[in-house]
User: Fold this.
Amino acid sequence: MFDYSPFNRSSVGFDRLFRLLDEAANVETQAWPPYNIERLGENDYRITIAVAGFGPADIAIEAKGNSLTITGKKAEKADPSVEVLHQGIAGRSFERRFQLADYVEVKGAEMSHGLLHVALARVLPEAMKPRQIAINTVDKPKAIEAKAA
Assistant:
């Protein structure tokens, strides 16, 4: 555990960053389901989660503020007459949370071959984008001629 209080005394507006660092240090390592975070371009990202055995109706994706939550709840067994001798494909419920940076938006999700792909993009508002500032020229003021009276 790291104490961020000296930084809090000498900085303003970084409290959210310090809170995120505290949360990241306290998170238990959860190994299931496995996932990848991929960078597809300068502003495009994708989270891929292995969800074998889950269908689109079993998964919920919620984006709220800077948090993305992906939840999977498997429906009850459809066929009680089937006897499972070995269950190697996990069907337990899960919840994965991801903290998104400012201006990162969820663009969509798709599922194929047992993988859930969640597309993300960083979209900067116009006010945050770099812009060129025009330089105006100012003419020299005219000198007043002094005449002897």
Q: What stands out?
A: The mean pLDDT is 80.
